[in-house]
Amino acid sequence: MTLDEIKNPKIKAWVEECVKMCEPDNVYVCDGSTEEYDRLMKKCVDAGLATPLAKKPNSFLFRSLPSDVARVEGRTFISSVKQEDAGPTNNWIDPVELKATMKGLYKGCMHGRTMYVIPFCMGPLGSPISKNGIELTDSEYVVLNMDIMTRAGKKVLDIIGTDGEFVPCLHSVGKPLNNGEKDNGIWPCADVEHKYISQFPEEHLIWSYGSGYGGNALLGKKCFALRIATVLAREEGWLAEHMLILKLTNPEGKVKYVTGAFPSACGKTNLAMLIPTIPGWKVETIGDDIAWMKFGKDGRLYAINPEAGFFGVAPGTSAESNKNALISASKNTIFTNCALTEDGDVWWEQIGYPAKGKLVDWKGQTRDALPKDKSPKGEEFAHPNARFTAPAKQCPCIAPEWENPEGVPISAILFGGRRPSTVPLVHQSRNWNHGVFLGSIVGSEITAASTIDASQVGKIRRDPFAILPFCGYNMGDYFQHWVDVGAKADQDKLPKIFYVNWFRKDENNADLPGGFMWPGYGDNSRVLAWIFDRCDGKDNYVDTPIGFMPKEGAINTDGLADYYKKTLPQILNVDKEGWLKEVKDIRENHYPKFGKHLPKELTACLDDLEARLSK
Ligand code: GTP
Ligand code: SPV
Ligand code: MN
Q1: Where among 342, 360, 394 does a domain terminate?
Q2: Can you list the positions of beta strands (E) in 79-211?
Q3: DSSP of 423-477, one letter per residue?
Q4: Do 374 and 250 fall within a single domain?
Q5: Transmembrane region positions (predicted)?
Q6: 52, 227, 433, 541: most buried, per Cβ within 10 A?
Q7: How many structural domains does the chain have?
Q8: Looking at the domain assignment, is residue 144 inside a domain?
Q9: Are residues 102 and 149 in the same domain?
Q10: Which atom of ligand 2 is nearest to the CA of 71?
């Protein structure tokens, strides 16, 4: 399609303005057809950027550069007019200054390239909760990924019509091709110090420059569906969250929907598609990364998944850990930074079997495969943040209602993270505000998904609501928004809130794989079952200083290995000393950051926790 075919004057004027600045050789409006996908993929193969995979139908492997393997939080900006509105946890640059800098970079940045206009919808087409965007990009890789991750193409232009709303998203890899230069198989991107992932919250505008990878470049995902959407949600009275959505059916056939916020690479995709190890229970997937939640007419909170695909962490995904993800990514899938086998398949660490012969690693080096499916740190064949981009509809356990325009009613909200000590397997908040408190104190080890600096991985940081790098405004105000949403709602109809931790460690116990005291994955169904019954008000709990916890025997342990049965009491115990340290750290280092923006309800919860622990 050509620009002339766009009837919306606002879109047209904005595209023309960006064309003038970026100076692409061509402008092309994406229709979202299969023919278009195939043509652009061929262009990537011809440019040496993509390798077709003989072993997986219609699937391709891309390799990026070491400076462009994950989100770049240090180069991500919330550019509100006032710094206070970006808050203490976001990088901020004055919008006038940032725009001037970025305009300088955008000037002529698309020389030798095509500017693609991608109309896309976040959420099911026609849903009252969905929102539209237009991404302009000079990356075919981005067009192809957006095609899988969102509902993209002409149908969305038709929905926007001549006067509908859209979020403008401008993206460039920041690598012009001057004087007939070619990519020659090298992933185009800019140096780290020239990367800018910028959100302008007052204008609901996104400008991204210099990276072609994941959330930096697929602007519908973290930039729009979280950073801009958190701002829209606050304005309009709903919730935009970094949460998976799952459907849980108990042996009696009763259904509940659960969301869960865990930081990047902390188990959302795995939990969303787990295969329960307890008989009679069923888990189906609605979404694996982002939830948009609004109150329905019946007063309950309803969630939609704004995405249409999974951008999942490849390493660690095996037939044992997440068979449903493997099947989702068995065809029509884009792989990024995985290793390539001699017979034309992808491979990654902990895929469940060793590779044979030679492998091409994510840096493009050919090396002999190791006899195990693990590699020494820093020498991995697949980058630790290697990803698959797969259509959600290919997931064997996708719930039939996953595209229901009204969303699904949520009974429980989980918070979690990687905490090697202190935080028990599961505890429930006493009420909504106590749940907001639990969300506000989430901490987790840093993972390879959130930094390109490997030396940061494993350090613990607070990641409130798992949304630290994705909140488009002051985090203190975000806490207040959660308190306000709860205060307005019918208390009986609000979801119950839980804090889970699959990642407690005991490095001295040689029996435990990876040192983890809980098997995780499919065995997390044991915890989901307890949560399900809690939502029904079952008497399966004890009241503890930190909240409600499973009473003895309330977690089903049938079939669990003996060494996990032995560690269970330790991870279902209240570590009073550890929690008192936690209280001190929150009081001295975490909460003071938010100053007057911190809701008094949360300080009250902290005081209450300390008092209960000290009794
Ligand atoms: P993003 O897509 O970055 O937001 O990550 P995510 O939250 O979807 O995490 P994902 O499910 O992809 O898991 C990330 C890593 O954690 C993988 O290497 C998994 O194997 C591992 N993991 C997931 N669930 C568990 C669990 O229950 N226990 C343990 N020990 N590891 C897990
Ligand atoms: C995350 O880091 O949380 C991801 C990957 O899901 S990205 O889309 O790159 O943000
Ligand atoms: Mn994920």
Answers
A1: 394
A2: 114-122, 131-137, 151-152, 167-172, 196-200, 205-209
A3: S-SEEE-SSHHHHHHHHHT-EEE--TTS-S-GGGTT-EEE-GGG-GGG-SS-HHH
A4: no
A5: none
A6: 227
A7: 3
A8: yes
A9: yes
A10: 9
Please name which ligand lies nearest the alpha carbon of 313: 1
Distance CA 169, CA 156 (A): 15
Q: Under a CB-based contact definition with an 8 Å cutoff, are residues 388 and 335 in contact?
A: yes
For atom 22 of ligand 1, which residue has the closest CA? 267
Of ligand 2's atoms, which has the minimum distance to the CA of residue 214?
Answer: 9
Q: Both 594 and 458 in a single domain? A: yes
The domain of 386 spans 310-394
Specify whether 413 is located in the same domain as 458.
yes
Q: Find the helix or strand (DSSP H, E) in which 268 lies.
A: helix 268-272
Atom of ligand 2 nearest to the CA of 263: 3
pLDDT in tens, 134-165: 999 999 999 999 999 999 999 999 999 999 99
Instruction: Report the distance separating Cα 514 and Cα 262, nearest Å.
Output: 20
- Taking the CA of 273 as reference, the closest ligand is 1
**CATH number for the domain that contains residue 333:** 2.170.8.10
Instruction: Report which residue type is found at 537.
Output: G
60 occurs within a structural domain = no
pLDDT at 66: 97
Identify the H or E element spanning 285.
strand 282-287
Q: Is 266 a catalytic residue?
A: yes
Task: Tell me how far the alpha carbon of residue 471 lies from the centroid of ligand 3, in angstroms.
Answer: 18
Tell me how far CA of residue 92 lies from CA of 73, 75, 474, 490, in angstroms: 12, 10, 11, 37
Same domain, 278 and 343: no
Low-confidence ranges of the chain (pLDDT < 50): none
Neighbours of 528 (CB within 10 A): 26
Q: Is the distance from CB of 375 to CB of 347 less than 8 angstroms?
A: no
The residue annotated as part of the active site, out of 266, 395, 397, 471, is: 266
What are the backbone dihedrals phi and psi of residue 13, each rounded to the nearest 5 degrees, phi first? -65, -40
Neighbouring residues of the ion ligand 3, judged by CB less than 5 Å: 268-269
CB atoms within 10 A of CB 342: 13
* Torsion from C-alpha of 118, 332, 282, 399, nearest 10 degrees: 40
Judge if 508 and 602 occupy the same domain: yes
pLDDT at 507 (0 to 100): 87
Q: How far is the CA of 269 from the centre of ligand 1 (A)?
A: 7
Ligand 2 binding residues, C-beta < 6 A? 71, 214-215, 221-222, 264, 289, 311, 449-450
Q: Which residue is associated with the tokens 């910028």?
A: 198
What is the Cα–Cα distance from 128 to 147, expressed in whole angstroms? 22
- What pLDDT, on the 0 to 100 scale, is given for residue 134? 98
| pTM, full prediction | 0.97
The pLDDT value given to residue 456: 82
- The answer to whether residues 453 and 487 belong to one domain is yes
Give the separation between CA 499 and CA 419, rounded to whole angstroms.
11
* Whole-number Å distance between alpha carbons of 595 and 34: 52
Which-ligand-closest: CA of 221? 2
